[in-house]
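User: I've been trying to design a sequence by hand for this structure and keep getting stuck. Would you show me what you'd pick, starting by listing the structure so we're on the same page?

Assistant: Good idea, let's start from the same input. This is the structure you sent:
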């Protein structure tokens, strides 16, 4: 399944028609393919003020095979460099911003580089978090960068994105993984996001092509849609996937498990013995688990005034209680959750913005966010992480069933003017499962193309 309008608007006939009608022309996004370089061109790396990360960032990018350009000194006209030198990304170290006056330096650096940015370009800004600021002026300036980045993300065209990473003192080693993710095609539909990394023991090196080699990954709701895409991406990245879904979806589940060289495990995650059975299965068959993706989810939409108990209870049981119960059982089962384990919980944009007719669903998905935030410190104590991924409008069977008008509006009202694909959610989840992402914990990453809903 793909976003039909994006394909149409980029076809021969379609592109002239949408131009004549003045309709939006969403870009074809740069999505990750194995073997693809991190960026299709060089990156401008600069700092606003005396940044503490610029040197390390330059080294990270060079190690990843990215050519690094120095920023152009002026914000004036084109500097005349030839087309081959147009940057594919701009990385700004804004840790030197100590007050509002230094924000102008961020503008001075970004403006000329962004003007020359190639299609499907990337802007990544790094800054100190407002929470650790020494004065209100410093906190204001750090927070101001959020407004700058989120607005720039809305101004960028041609499939380009802008994201911000807050880096507290001591968390410098955690920066490489999110920066490389945001630059790469893995983050195609992640736009206008703000992440805060934390100090962690980040393993050095690793296999870029198969970062999950040797890992066992459980994916619930893997028989179709986003779950099947997660299974495919995790397997591509080297993991052995244990694909979980309800017995009624057994045939589709087996097909996905076979396709990815994994194993199928039929389990209703809401069954009273589900946690016990999953723990026993992982212990006996695999000697433990490295990655758990809570993806199984359902909708039972009704306005609250018409919401019956069954609709409320089933949504809460699948989307929230099962995630709590399975995670708790895995934490309690001695040795099953391996050191450096990763839990990724699928939330939703509805859990952030709310959605008419979805009080039950949005409550469950907001609950997931509360869950990962509350558990993050305990996971950090084990060298593990727990994060949430909140998809926006993703083109799946679920969204295909929506009425045409609602669906088209839903797909267009984001900065990238298109719906995301299941693979976009899967790539973000697989990135969070990577050993290098050890410093990303208790975060909520939206995969929504910077949706205007709950922005
Ligand atoms: P989907 O309906 O296509 O797939 C969900 C899968 O979960 C199905 O295979 C289903 O059998 C399985 N499942 C349901 N109840 C289960 C249970 N009790 N035990 C085990 N498996 C169970 O949905 P999708 O669109 O692929 O969504 C996947 C996740 O992403 C869900 O959590 C959903 O809420 C979330 N999400 C989707 C979108 C979107 O636009 N599609 C947006 C935001 C969030």
């Amino acid at each position: 399944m793909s976003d039909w309008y994006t394909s149409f608007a980029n076809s021969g006939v379609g592109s002239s028609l949408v131009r004549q009608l003045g309709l939006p022309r969403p870009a074809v996004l740069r999505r990750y393919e194995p073997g693809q370089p991190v960026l299709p061109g060089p990156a401008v790396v600069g700092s606003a003020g005396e940044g503490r990360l610029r040197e390390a960032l330059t080294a990270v990018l060079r190690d990843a095979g990215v050519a690094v350009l120095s920023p152009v000194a002026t914000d004036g006209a084109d500097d005349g460099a030839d087309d081959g030198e147009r940057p594919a990304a701009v990385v700004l170290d804004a840790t030197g911003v100590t007050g509002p006056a230094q924000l102008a330096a961020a503008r001075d650096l970004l403006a000329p580089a962004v003007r020359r940015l190639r299609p499907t370009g990337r802007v990544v800004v790094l800054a100190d978090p407002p929470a650790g600021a020494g004065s209100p002026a410093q906190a204001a300036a750090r927070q101001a960068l959020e407004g700058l980045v989120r607005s720039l993300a809305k101004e960028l065209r041609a499939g380009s994105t802008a994201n911000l990473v807050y880096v507290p003192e001591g968390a410098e080693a955690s920066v490489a993984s999110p920066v490389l993710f945001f630059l790469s095609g893995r983050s195609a539909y992640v736009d206008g996001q703000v992440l805060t990394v934390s100090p962690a023991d980040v393993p050095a090196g690793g296999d870029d092509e198969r970062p999950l080699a040797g890992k066992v990954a459980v994916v619930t709701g893997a028989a179709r849609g986003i779950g099947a895409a997660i299974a495919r991406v995790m397997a591509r990245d080297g993991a052995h996937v244990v694909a979980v879904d309800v017995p009624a979806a057994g045939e589709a589940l087996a097909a996905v498990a076979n396709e990815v060289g994994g194993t199928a495990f039929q389990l209703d995650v809401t069954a009273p013995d589900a946690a016990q059975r999953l723990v026993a299965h992982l212990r006996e068959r695999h000697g433990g688990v490295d990655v758990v993706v809570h993806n199984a989810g359902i909708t039972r939409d009704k306005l609250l005034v018409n919401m019956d108990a069954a609709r409320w209870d089933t949504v809460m049981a699948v989307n929230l209680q099962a995630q709590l119960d399975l995670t708790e059982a895995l934490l309690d089962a001695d040795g099953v959750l391996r050191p450096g384990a990763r839990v990724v919980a699928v939330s939703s944009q509805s859990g952030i913005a709310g959605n008419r007719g979805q009080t039950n669903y949005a409550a469950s998905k907001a609950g997931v966010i509360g869950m990962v935030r509350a558990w993050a410190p305990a996971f950090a104590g084990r060298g593990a992480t727990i994060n949430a991924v909140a998809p926006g409008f993703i083109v799946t069977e679920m969204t295909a069933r929506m009425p045409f008008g609602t669906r088209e509006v839903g797909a267009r009202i984001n900065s990238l003017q298109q719906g995301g694909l299941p693979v976009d959610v899967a790539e973000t989840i697989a990135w969070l499962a990577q050993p290098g992402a050890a410093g990303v914990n208790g975060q909520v990453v939206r995969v929504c193309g910077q949706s205007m809903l709950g922005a």
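That's my pick for every position. To get oriented when you compare it with your attempt: Residues 50 and 331 are 43 Å apart (CA to CA). The two ends are 26 Å apart (CA to CA).
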